Amino acid sequence: MIKSKKISLKDAISIGIGGMVGGGIFAVLGLAVSLAKGGTPLAFLFAGILALITSYSYINLSKKFPDRGGTVKFINQGFGKTIFSGAINNLLWVSYIVMLSLYASAFGSYAPNLWEITHDKTIDFHIYASAIILLATAINYYSISVVGKIEAYAVLIKLIILIGFIGIGAYGLIGNPNVGQLAISNWESPLKLFAGGMVIFVAYEGFELIANAAPDIDNPEENIPKAYYYSVIFVILLYIIIALVTVGSLPFEQIAKAKDYVLAEAAKPMLGQIGFTIITLAALISTFSAINASLYGGSKVNFEIAEDDELPHHFVAKLWNQPIGLMITAVATLILVNLLNLESISTAGSIGFIIIFGIVNYVGYKLAAKMQTKKIIPLFGVLLCSLALITLVKQQVSDNLTGILVSMGIILLCFIIEWVYKKVEKKTS
Fold first, then answer.
1. Residue 124 · residue 301 · CB < 8 Å
2. Are residues 53 and 229 in contact, defined by beta-carbon separation less than 8 angstroms?
3. What are phi and psi of 323, to 5 degrees?
4. What is the Cα–Cα distance from 212 to 58, expressed in whole angstroms?
5. Which H or E element spans position 84?
6. Using CB atoms within 10 A of its CB, is residue 423 exposed (0-12), middle (13-18) or buried (19+)?
7. Domains defined along the chain, listed by start
8. CB–CB of 368/57 below 8 Å?
9. What is the pTM of this model?
């Protein structure tokens, strides 16, 4: 009997960091600054604290119920295979599609800075965003091992470039007049800072990918908690320092103007056009690898949901040797990225994952006795996710009603689809 290769602590941490530092930071940094101004580092801290508290529930559930279905299996453990659990698992799949749209949107925003196709940035955006989804879909159909290799190299490249950006950027802050923008007088109100953190919460959601790897992690009792905590804490610090360097390097007007590719713009004061080009390339590599990995992950989530009888078994079928959900995920992403703007996509993604993480925290609370863990931390996670959701919706209703309507429409659709499926299944069984 051949034993499956175990995942080391280092590899498990890489999965968590790679999932979080995908295209998220490149996509939402400018949006975060527009909402939080000088308090942007604090907004990233608020979002990171929510991720860190939620990771406690993920740790205990991953140890007690290790399964490659990850979040899907945890929700089913807490609620059984009901209309509610099916709808929330469908929301997880759709949230993957929203994340893919976010990454493709970032790719489409950065790419024209290197090569304009039509000399109209709006048209170029749609061409690049659509092309990268099609390319990643083709690679996923060609070979899953190629997807894994791309992700492994991309994680290393983007971390080296981002850490280099931090090192050079921190030095460049000496004597920079824009450092004053970080003063408390330039912060938004505490409520707006918290709301700003929740809008860009999607930049942290990737730590949940560790759950899918839990059955294969070596020495799980010790390494699963370390993998979650080390990866989340590292990314919190990384994002906060990136936010400090960005806000301290450029005037707010310049950040607003280059909102969709602000990280590349922030490299200009230190390294000029070369810095701009290097960060742009890092953004393209990061978003491309994130699209590759998320397409595969999204199709796997869809497959797991169908296997658990929460979607029709047609989704278990394969098209060109891959789950049919891969093609559906790719097509849905193409539609979404070409219809919605960046803020609406980010809002929809954040709302989806805040709801999902709130429910996972509730499952952690509900099953605490069974897992012999503390109830207070997951309960606090539920309350914090609830507060985050209310704050985010309240702030975005006035600023970005489209994003809220899209989010509500997605949630409603997930429940309707699951209700109809369960009704039909009951009649035919």
1. no
2. no
3. -55, 140
4. 11
5. helix 83-110
6. exposed
7. 9-423 (1.20.1740.10)
8. no
9. 0.88
Query: Cα separation of 105 and 116, whole Å?
Result: 16
Quick one: pLDDT at residue 399? 80
Region for residue 309 given its phi and psi (left: phi exceeds 0; alpha: psi -120 to 50; beta: otherwise): left
- Cβ neighbours around 54 below 10 Å, total: 30
Q: 10 Å Cβ neighbour count for 401? A: 12
Type and span of the H or E element at 10:
helix 9-20
What kind and span of H or E run contains 369?
Answer: helix 368-371
Distance CA 411, CA 417 (A): 10
Do the beta carbons of residue 74 and residue 61 sit within 8 Å? yes
Q: Which residues fall within 8 angstroms of residue 214, CB to CB, at 6 or more apart?
A: 62, 63, 66, 67, 70, 220, 224
CA neighbor of 364 nearest in space, from 85, 74, 68? 74
* H, E, C per residue of 23-36: CHHHHHHHHHHHHH
Contact between 356 and 381 under an 8 Å Cβ cutoff? The reply is: no
In this structure, what token pair is assigned to residue 24? 């998220």
Report the alpha-carbon distance of residue 96 to residue 333 in Å, rounded.
Answer: 9
For the segment 318-340, the average pLDDT, to the nearest whole number, is 81
Q: Which amino acid is at 17?
A: I
How many other CB atoms are there within 10 angstroms of residue 351's CB atom?
A: 29
- The residue ranking higher by pLDDT, 56 or 322, is 56
CA dist 352 to 99, 121, 322, 341, Å?
10, 30, 26, 17
CA distance 48 to 30: 17
Report the Cα 213 to chain-centroid distance in Å. Answer: 17
User: Average pLDDT of the chain?
Assistant: 86
88-102 pLDDT tens trace: 998 998 888 888 898
